[in-house]
Amino acid sequence: NGIPVRPIESTIHSSTRNISQFLDKIIRPIFDEKCASTTIIDGTSLIKELLKYIKKGLLKPTTLFCTFDIRNLYTMLPQDEALDILVEFLQFYGYTKVKGINLETIRELAAIVLKENVFVYGKKIYKQVLGGAMGSSFTLTLANIFMWKWQKELVRRQDMTGEFYGRYIDDIFMTWNKSEKSLKDLLDDANKWHPNIKLEYSIGKSLPFLDVSFTNNNGILTISVYHKPAAESYVVPFRSDHPRHVFVNVIQTSLSRAVRYSSTFENFNNERRYIQLTLLYNG
Question: Which of 137, 197, 213, 215 gives 20 to 30 Å between its CA and that of 17?
Fold first, then answer.
């Protein structure tokens, strides 16, 4: 009917699940260690990195923020190329074996996880020939390693000028101290680096990223909690049959986030009122 869909395969109880979990267990720690400087873990880690950026004197009244996301990263991974980049990544960091397993065997195991995904729909059997199963644990690590290769040029350019570059899976946050046109030219060029990697970007002095809103207020960084417009104000209803500590945790977590993500007392009070109204709305 002309409605675009995204294939999301559940790999629970599948024949590739154990291999996927094993590869993820031995390779993800390597990625996490080697790529920590360009990896955003959560909103708090990004705030800490931007505070370092400010201490270097790089945040100016004209500094721009840029966020962009990669469209359908998991399902657009070219399979053979992703496997080649996996081996390249391990070799780049000096690995010939991982946990006693040589790289050729690791590639073969990864190929099974990536390529042997079949499902039944409408009495027909389908095989995934592009990307990986979103329900497979190793798909995330493989996507991260693929992006390690793709983003190299962006990271190099940002490092040369002292600007910040950080990535949370398929979402990227950057700072920029040149003209907006030069940034758009760079991103438009990056859109041509790989036929499967397409990005959609936003540029400005005030942008949200994950659950944080960042504003460059004339050279002063202002932060607050960000709520997506489509997000519903729902939490566990107070009258539901849950252990009492669940409700306490909801309040503590919300208030803790408000404290961490509020650069002014006014922003904290705004978020506190939002939390209060949400709790009242949910009984």
Answer: 197
